[in-house]
Amino acid sequence: MSLSAPSPTRKKVRVEQLRPGMFVLELCGAWLDHPFWRTSFLLKDQADLERLRQSPVREVWIDIARGLDVAPEAPAPARGDAAPPPPVKPVRTVPEKVPLEEEIGRARKICMRACREVGGLFQQARMGQALRTAPVVELVEDITASVLRSPSALVSLARLKTKDDYTYLHSVSVCALMVSLGRQLGLPEPELREVGLAGLLHDLGKAAIPLEILNKPGRLTDEEFALVKEHPRAGHAMLSDAGVTSDSALDVCLHHHERIDGRGYPDGLAGEAISLHARMGAVCDVYDAITSDRPYKAGWHPAEAIRRMAQWTKEGHFDERVFQAFVKCIGIYPTGSLVKLQSGRLAVVLEQRESSLLTPRVKVFFSTRSNLHIPPEEIDLASSLVRDRIVSQENPEDWGFRHLDELWAGPPARPA
C-alpha cells in the first residue's frame, strides 16, 4: 500500500510550506533527487529544511498526527493596508569548517556509536538474521557532516582502532575516507553520502568468514585465503537479500578488491571496467588496512603507507587519478605523522593545508639537538612568518614514542 494513500492525517504540501516539527511521511520524486537517506522522518531543524528546499523535490506528504500541520495562511490585508514584505529566500546550510581540535570530541562520539551500530549489523549477519540497515544508514549523514567540518578528525581517529574492534571501525574509517575522497573528486553531496554508505557496508561479507581465520595471527593457508576471497560475493548477497538498492553500495561491496591491471578478485576486472566508486573503495580499503594494527602485523604509519601505495599504483594496483586525489585529501604527511624539521625539532602533523601538501600545521615537542622533550608548540608551516620546514618523516618506534597520538587526539576516551 502506498504511503500516499488518502488519510485524514496525511497531507500533500509544497516544500515552501514545510517547517521544523512536521513529520515527513514521503518525498515526492526520485530517490537520488532528495538529500536524505530516509524517506520518512521528523523534520527537526532549519538545516534539514534548507537542504530539502534546495533539492529538486517540490512536494512531500506529511502526517499531522505525528507532527505539526501546515501553518494557517495570514488573512489578506485590508484595503489600504501595506502588503507584507516577500519572504527572504533561505540560504542553504553547509557544515562550517572547524579546526581538527574542535571536531575531535564530536568525531570520537561518532566513532563510538558507529562501532556499536556496525558491530550489531555484523552480528545480525553472522547469526543469519534479517539485517536492520536503517541505523547504520543514518550514521552516514553524521559521518559526512563531520568530514565536511574537518576532513582529518574522524578519519584519523578511526585509524587508532584496536585489534578487537578492527572489523567494525575499519568500515567506519573507509566510510569517512570515501566521503573525503569523493569531496576531493568534486562529487555532489548526494553522491558523497552514497559512496559513504558503500564504504560503511563494503566488508559486510566478512561476517561469513570464521573468526578464527579473520583473527589468525599467522599466515593464512591457501585454503583459508581462498575462503577470505569469497567475502565480496557473500557481502553482495547479504546486501541484496536485505533489500539494499544502492548500486554504489552493491558494486563497491563486490568489487573493492579489483585491480586496475586485472589481477584482483572476484571478477578480475581491469581498467575502465571497474567503476569509479569501486576504484575509490580499493584505495580507501587498503590505506586503512595497512595503517591499522592487525593480529598478524603492526600498522604502518600514515606517511609510510602513502609512500608504499604510490609504488603499488605504478605497479597497476590502483587508479592513478583516484590515488592522486586521495593523496591530496589525506596529505603527503597525514595527521598523526611524525616529521623532523630543519630546525632539528620533531613534530606531529595536526592538519593539512589543501593549498600546499608540504606545509601542514604541526605541533613540535622534541629537540633532536638536546635529545629532550620541549614544551609543545603549534606551528603553521604555511605561514610567511615561519622559516622552518619538513626535512624527513620519522618512525616513532625509532625514537621510543609510545603515546604520539595523544599529542593530536588527546588522551584515549575512558569507558563511561
TrEMBL record:
PANTHER family on file: CYCLIC DI-GMP PHOSPHODIESTERASE PA4108, CYCLIC DI-GMP PHOSPHODIESTERASE PA4108-RELATED
Coiled coil: none
GO molecular function terms attached to this record: phosphoric diester hydrolase activity
Matching PROSITE patterns: HD_GYP (PS51832)
InterPro entries: DUF3391, HD/PDEase_dom, HD_GYP_dom
Segments forming domain HD-GYP: 145-342
Annotated region described as Disordered, given as residue ranges: 73-93
Biased composition (Low complexity): 73-82
Protein name in UniProt: Phosphodiesterase
